[in-house]
Design a protein that fits this description.
Blueprint: E1 2-10, E2 15-24, E3 27-32, E4 42-44, E5 49-52, E6 54-59, H1 72-81, E7 84-89, H2 100-110, E8 116-119, H3 135-140, E9 145-147, H4 156-169, E10 172-175, H5 192-196, H6 204-221, E11 225-227, H7 233-245, E12 251-255, H8 257-261, H9 267-270, H10 283-294, E13 300-301, H11 310-314, H12 330-339, H13 346-360, E14 376-386, E15 405-415, E16 418-421
Parallel strand pairs: 1-4, 1-5, 6-7, 7-8, 9-10, 10-11, 11-12, 12-13
Antiparallel strand pairs: 1-2, 2-3, 5-14, 14-15, 15-16
The protein binds (4S)-2,6-dioxohexahydropyrimidine-4-carboxylic acid (DOR).
(4S)-2,6-dioxohexahydropyrimidine-4-carboxylic acid (DOR) binds near residues 277, 304 and 306.
């Protein structure tokens, strides 16, 4: 395959130039001007940007157990449509990924998909926060990292022990930070909006109090940690101050597209579609997250793609599950709310959505070096488009962004040298 005349943005190699990309046997075999190619698979990328395929370190594919919401296959299609060539799936499937059997079943089936699907293991059996999983065995069987995502781990002793083991295994351990003591109603921020709904909500302290505990433990144990879906301004401040003390690059933190794009005010219009854990908060929090992205405090953009059925989301707010899909809108939300607003460059967006997540998980991804896997996203940075249900490849359609106009559109996703999208 030859990609011709693309504006190649490859931060890992400091490339920002109009070039051709030659692909042979699933790998990039040449980068340059007027490359010789005799085949007939040519993408004319004039006016388009080609960058390393996106990498999501926080995805829920619901397979096994809730395949009415998403399967490995529909999840892979959604990811590819969003420009992703690698995703790291969370362990809150049914059963949870807490045994080698469950992990191996997922990895075997995932290998048949066009994009690269990695799978984390839970930290505790059943994600119940009590009994640790056999981390060493699960790592040997291919667990990408460890997380009880969806649920906080309250037992500090257990967290310390799991961090020590993750550090010894050289694996990332990721944390969902919401202390239930301050979550009176999940999915809505405690404050003006929750009060107007007659609900107490989820307080910001639920998040930042746990982040402080886990960052202290990370520095003490030497574990590489990922603080997931940061939502509150205080959390950004705490992460910033701990990163200053972190001489070994142990601390990483995610911003989601929904937390940098929306506030709690959207709940009045979108109801349960905007119910998510941790919740959307205030404009001051949104701005703090953008500041965190700009100064590197938040070094990853991760989707928390969380499919749920229309029936579940149509029910009463207090009963509806939290979460929204995100793979198909993440890149355009980054372009719309971070790049087009002048906060960051396209190059920086690619670092946050590809280079940094690939490095954190040690994946052979995130660069367009000659010899690297041909995992490439090609997009038009200037297309303005309305996101509709027809754009959704996920099995679930629970997005508060339906009907919104976004900037920047993925045109092709190439994974291991093959078309993954369209
Ligand atoms: O809102 C959420 N939904 N937050 C999470 O962390 C988990 C996710 C899910 O699995 O539905």
């Amino acid at each position: 395959m030859l990609i011709k005349n693309a504006h190649v943005i490859d931060p890992a190699n400091k490339t920002d130039d109009i070039l051709d990309i030659l692909i042979e046997d699933g790998r990039i075999s040449g980068l340059g001007r007027s490359l010789r190619y005799t085949g007939d698979e040519i993408i004319d990328a004039a006016g388009l940007v080609a960058a390393p395929g996106l990498v999501d370190v926080h995805t829920h594919f619901r397979d096994p157990g809730q395949t009415d919401k998403e399967t490995l296959h529909t999840g892979a299609l959604a990811a590819a449509a969003g420009g992703y060539t690698s995703v790291v799936c969370m362990a809150n499937t049914l059963p949870a990924v807490d045994t080698v059997n469950t992990l191996s079943d997922i990895l075997d089936r995932a290998a048949k998909e066009k994009i690269h699907i990695y799978q984390t293991s839970a930290v505790t059996m059943g994600r119940e926060g009590r009994e640790p999983v056999a981390m060493r065995e699960l790592a040997a069987a291919g667990a990408a990292g460890f997380t009880d995502d969806g649920t906080p781990i309250m037992d500090e002793k257990l967290v310390r022990r799991a961090m020590k083991e993750a550090a010894a295994l050289g694996k990332v351990i990721s944390f969902h930070e919401e202390d239930p003591a301050y979550v009176w109603q999940a999915g809505v921020n405690s404050g003006r909006v929750s009060e107007s709904m007659g609900l107490s909500g989820a307080d910001r302290k639920a998040e930042y109090s746990m982040i402080e505990r886990d960052l202290q433990l990370a520095l003490e144990t030497g574990a590489t940690v990922d603080i997931q879906h940061v939502s509150a301004a205080e959390s950004v401040d705490i992460i910033r101050s701990y990163k200053k003390k972190d001489k070994n690059g142990l601390i990483h933190a995610e911003a989601t597209p929904h937390h940098f794009s929306l506030t709690e005010d959207i709940l009045a219009e979108k109801g349960s579609l905007a119910k998510v854990n941790p919740p959307l908060r205030t404009e001051a929090d949104r701005q703090a997250i953008i500041e965190g992205i700009k100064d590197g405090t938040l070094d990853l953009i991760a989707t928390d793609h969380a499919p749920h059925t229309a029936e579940e989301k149509a029910g009463e707010f207090v009963k509806a599950p939290s979460g929204m899909i995100g793979l198909e809108t993440a890149f355009a939300l980054g372009m719309t709310n971070l790049v087009k607003t002048g906060h960051i460059s396209i190059k920086r967006l690619i670092e946050l959505m590809s280079v940094n997540p690939a490095r954190l998980y040690g994946l052979n991804a995130g660069s367009l070096s000659v010899g690297a896997p041909a995992d490439i996203v090609i997009f038009n940075p200037d297309t303005s488009w309305k996101f509709t249900e027809e754009d959704i490849h996920s099995r679930s359609k629970n997005s508060p962004f339906i009907g919104m106009t976004l900037q920047g559109k993925v045109r092709y996703t190439i994974s291991a040298g093959r078309y993954a999208f369209p």
